[in-house]
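Q: Okay, next protein. This is Cadmium transporter from Natrarchaeobius chitinivorans. I've checked the sequence twice, so it should be correct. Can you predict the 3D structure?
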Amino acid sequence: METLFVAAGLFIATNIDILIVVTAFCLDEDYATVEVVVGYCTGFLVGLCGAVFGAFVVTGVLQRWAFLLGAVPVVLGLWGLFRLEPDPVGDELQVIPGPTGRIWVVTVTAIGLNGENLAVYIPFFVGLTSAELLAVILAYIIAAVILFLVALLITRLTHDLPHPAWIDRWLVPAVLVFVGSYVIISGWIAV
């Protein structure tokens, strides 16, 4: 039971950015809900399978040093916090892809966002038994569905409100730094 509590905490901490992005896609009138759900689910499953595969590789080769993967979200978070904003260039012509292209955009975005989660999930998955890993995978799939439903609810409730820039600029990178630091510190203590 303790494993599922830790898994839930890691899922929440690592998926705040995904919730924000999925909500943004749902708010975008150019994207149909079905396009967002197909792209999000595909990207989520690719990321989860990558984490499970990574855990098997690390278990066989580098289990003792897996916690160092926590440096990935720390670096991404610090980059997000300290990067310079690009100069606005005015209105640029945007090409809106067709339905398949929009699904691909959501999928690639979800894979990219789940890619940073690998650094958190792999060290966590390494220490699990097969039964615990299966339970966590099932819990994560259920949590992913809940995350999408929450994004839809937020969309329905806030479709007329502007998207606050501080979320992408400060909150998401700070969460990445926190989660990566947790992985490094907890792994360092365990070694």
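A: Here is a summary of the prediction. The CA atoms of residues 140 and 146 lie 10 Å apart. The chain has six helices and no strands.
Q: Noted. On to the next one.
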